[in-house]
Amino acid sequence: MYGFLSSANPLPGHRLELVFRNGSTAVVNMEPRIRTLRFARLDAEAVFASAKAEGDKVVWTDGKTPFAVYCSELLDAMMMD
Predict the structure, then answer these.
(1) What is the pTM of this model?
(2) What is residue 76's DSSP assignment?
(3) What's the mean pLDDT in 17-38?
(4) Pick from 34, 23, 22: which is nearest to 74 by CA?
(5) What sign does the CA torsion over 28, 29, 32, 33 have?
(6) How far is residue 78's CA from residue 81's CA, in Å, rounded to a whole number?
(7) Residue 29 and residue 69: Cα distance in Å, rounded?
(8) What homologous superfamily does CATH list for 5-79?
């Protein structure tokens, strides 16, 4: 699937590096968000580590159910830090 995300790389401390097709990167601190209902599933290290870019979304899985978030939502969250 083609999109503007090249990869999503989980980093220590529930941070997520987004790599864009144009070579730009952004690091989103997800730590404050995993305490919310929307992102609570990402608290488990194994789930957070499963992040991968799919088009314009980042998708995580717990082995059963995928959880997708659009890149624009992650970038908005980054701007609130």
Answers:
(1) 0.89
(2) H
(3) 94
(4) 34
(5) positive
(6) 6
(7) 14
(8) NE0471-like N-terminal domain (3.30.2020.10)
